[in-house]
Amino acid sequence: MFAAMVRGIRIYPWDWRNWICLRLELYGFYLSSEMCTSSGRAEITSKPCVGDQNCGQNAKCKLPRASRIQKQVMDSYRVSLPNNVTEQSCHCSHGYHGPSCQHYGCSSNPCLNGGSCSEANGTFSCACKPGYHGYTCQHPCKSGYHGYNCSQQCQCTEHGSCDIMTGHCNCKRGYYGTYCEQGCRPGYFGYNCAQKCQCKNGASCDRVTGLCNCTVGWTGAVCDKPCSWNMWGVNCTLNCSCWKSAKFCHRFTGKCICSLGYFGE
C-alpha cells in the first residue's frame, strides 16, 4: 500500500490505453481531468489537486470516495477508501471561502440580502438585516417569524401574513385590523376592506370577492333587476306554477296573480 505522504502517481492501466494522473492523500485517491503528457513507468509526481473541482491555492482537496474508474485502479493495487462520503469538496484555509476557496474575508461581499460584512482574526462575519439569517444572511425568515435573526414571532391571525422585516400583518381579502382579526363590515370588501359594495335592493356583498347575494325577487350583477313574470325567489331561480290565465307570478312569494275574470290558487 502506498505511503500517505506520496503526492501523486502516474499509472497506465491496460483497460484505457492512456495515462491517467492520480493523487494519493490521507483521504484517498484524486483523479485529474488531464491526461499525463508522457508515457513510461510509474513515477512520483507533484501534480496539484485539480480536475472536476479546482480548489485553488487556498485549500486542500478532499475526495474520500472514488469514482468508478478510480476504484478499478485502486482495487488492482489493493487500496481501500472510506465509503461514507459521496463527493469531492474543498476544505478552505482559515479566512478563505467560496466554491474553490478563491475569496478572502469581505473582499467578495459575501453577505447577501443587504447584510453588512466585518473582518476579525482572519475571517469574516455578516450582520443580517431584519428578515434574514444564516452565515451569509442567505435564508429569509420562515413563516411566522420576523425581525433580526428571525427571532421574533409574528402576531397575525390565520387571515394575514407577516412581513419578515417589520412584522406588519398583510391581511387577506375580506379582513382588516392590526392582526387581521376582523372581517369586513357590511357594505365593504377586498384588501383591508377598502372597497365599497355596489349591491342594491338590500342585497349583501361577499366580503372577499364583492359579488352580490341578491334578496328574494331580484337578480343581476348588482341585484337591480326584478324577476321576470314567470320566475320568483332568490336570484329569481324558481319557476312559478301558475296557469296561463295568470296575469303574473309574485316575485317575492311565488303566488299567482290571476287575470281579470279568473280566480284560484
UniProtKB/TrEMBL annotation:
Disulfide bonds listed in the record: C128-C137
Transferase recorded as keyword: no
SMART domains: EGF, EGF_Lam
Entry's transmembrane regions: none
Entry-linked InterPro entries: EGF (IPR000742), Galactose-bd-like_sf (IPR008979), LE_dom (IPR002049), MEGF10/SREC1/2-like (IPR042635)
Coiled coil residues, start to end: none
SUPFAM superfamilies assigned to the protein according to its UniProt record, in alphabetical order: EGF/Laminin, Galactose-binding domain-like
The UniProt record lists the keyword Disulfide bond: yes
PROSITE patterns per record: EGF_1, EGF_3
Keyword annotations: Disulfide bond, EGF-like domain, Glycoprotein, Repeat, Signal
EGF-like domain boundaries: 102-138
Highest taxon listed in the record's lineage: Eukaryota
Single GO term (MF): scavenger receptor activity
Pfam families listed in its UniProt record: EGF (PF00008), EGF_laminin (PF00053)
PANTHER family reported in the protein's UniProt record: EGF-LIKE DOMAIN-CONTAINING PROTEIN (PTHR24043:SF8), SCAVENGER RECEPTOR CLASS F (PTHR24043)
Entry protein name: EGF-like domain-containing protein
Organism: Desmophyllum pertusum
